[in-house]
Amino acid sequence: MSMYDHVKFPYLMPDGTQGPDYQTKDLRYQMDMADYEVTQAGRLRRTSSDYDQPLGDISYGHTIAISAGAAVYELRFRTGRLHEIHCFQSGITAPFAPENFV
After folding, report:
1. pLDDT in tens, 64-94
2. How far apart are CA 87 and CA 73, in angstroms?
3. Whether pTM exceeds 0.90
4. How far apart are the first and last CA of the chain?
5. SS3 assignment, position 98
6. Per DSSP, which regions of the chain are E strands?
């Protein structure tokens, strides 16, 4: 059985795709199923956790892959803020632009 964390990211992606909800396995903590959101400021926040992990801004500084159906994106964070987005299906990489929030 696959277990995913959920990431809310209501954003117009560089390839034109828009969706609020994605899945990832890159933020796994034991068997915790957690919910996250990327804020308009580009911060990654944990909004719920089965294992009572701390909620709020997690000051993330790595890369996560998120997916919705066949669409896969890589979110690249630096010093707690989303820096750029890579779209695997189109090969486009673009800087994070807060004005593309929907």
Report:
1. 999 998 999 999 999 999 999 999 999 999 9
2. 5
3. yes
4. 33
5. helix
6. 5-12, 18-24, 34-38, 44-49, 56-57, 63-68, 71-78, 81-87, 93-95
Q: Which residues have C-beta within 8 Å of that of residue 68, sequence separation ≥ 6? A: 19, 21, 22, 23
Residue 3: phi and psi, rounded to 5, are -120, 130
Cα–Cα dist 54/23, whole Å: 20
Measured CA to CA, the distance from residue 102 to residue 89 in angstroms comes to 22
Residue 69 tokens read as 């159906």
Q: Which two three-digit tokens encode residue 76?
A: 């690249």
